[in-house]
Design a protein that fits this description.
It is built from no helices and eleven strands. The chain is about 0% helix and about 55% strand. About 30% of the residues are buried. Strand 9 and strand 10 form a beta hairpin.
């Protein structure tokens, strides 16, 4: 059974930093790309960042490029999102995602709130 559990969210002032974690189980982590998404109140869920299975390739949404860094530890089956220079518009619930057999699996999300 695929399980994704996000943690590390919280309340931070503008310009601050947070590191999100997504602990996984139930699938072969090292063989799968992983992604982070976010959903702000009243908005559609949007893609934030992705990382290849080996961690050698990463991609970012323009809105977070240069501020966020996605990484992974295949030994710990965990993916991370380091968020620096946070802005109020980064306020959202953050989710990690994996796709298995054409089905998307999501965690429960972790709330990030950035105060101005």
């Amino acid at each position: 059974q695929v399980q994704l559990v996000e943690s590390g969210g919280g309340l931070v002032q503008s310009g601050g930093s947070l590191r999100l974690s997504c602990a996984t189980s139930g699938f072969v982590f090292r063989r799968n790309a992983m992604s982070w998404y976010r959903q702000a109140p009243g908005k559609e869920r949007e893609w934030v960042a992705a990382i290849s299975s080996a961690g050698t390739n990463t991609n970012y949404a323009d809105s977070v490029k240069g501020r966020f860094t996605i990484s992974r530890d295949n030994a710990k089956t965990t993916v991370y999102l380091q968020m620096n220079s946070l802005k109020p518009e980064d306020t959202a619930v953050y989710y990690c995602k994996v796709t298995q057999w054409n089905h998307d699996y999501w965690g429960q999300g972790t709330q990030v709130t950035v105060s101005s």
